[in-house]
Design goal:
The chain is mainly alpha-helical. The protein has one domain (18-133). 64% of the residues lie in helices and 0% in strands. Helix 1 packs antiparallel against helix 2 and helix 1 packs antiparallel against helix 3. 3% of the residues are buried.
């Protein structure tokens, strides 16, 4: 067996010449992107929840009308139903602006940093942390899938 038989696969092994500081910086950038990914999920939650609420207003307006509250029904129908959630924008426009602007740039810079500084490899920081923390030879502590130790 080679010297890496019980270590990370080639896709998670630090290239020669990449420093600890570079691995740490790439790890922090990756962690920040993962946080933005979570935020993006919440933005899509907002998009879907607001859209669902807007469609629910149709039923609320109908029920107010059926209950004889025509003024309230009309105010909801004309003032709230279909209203922009942010000046000039529905949530789909917010999502598109986010995806095409901030998010796209963040992903691009993360990719460029990995490509230029670590040969495009991902999660080097985590792979090295795994190596430091796992117990060699113990079940459930294998270096990679399908390995015995």
């Amino acid at each position: 067996m080679g010297r890496h038989a019980d270590g990370p696969d080639q896709a998670h092994r630090r290239p020669v010449g990449v420093t600890d500081e570079t691995v740490a910086a790439l790890g922090k950038l990756s962690e920040a992107l993962e946080t933005v990914e979570r935020a993006r999920g919440h933005l899509y939650d907002l998009h879907q929840l607001i859209g669902h609420a807007d469609l629910m207003l149709d039923e609320a307006v109908a029920r107010f009308r059926a209950a004889g509250h025509h003024d309230m029904a009309e105010e909801i129908a004309t003032e709230l139903l279909g209203r922009n959630v942010i000046a000039g924008r529905w949530t789909f426009q917010i999502v598109e602006d986010f995806d095409d602007g901030y998010y796209a740039l963040f992903r691009e810079l993360d990719r460029r940093a990995r490509d230029e500084l670590a040969g495009g490899l991902r999660h080097l920081y985590e792979a090295e942390m795994k190596e430091r923390r796992r117990t060699r030879g113990r079940p459930g502590h294998e270096a990679r899938p399908g390995r015995d130790g």
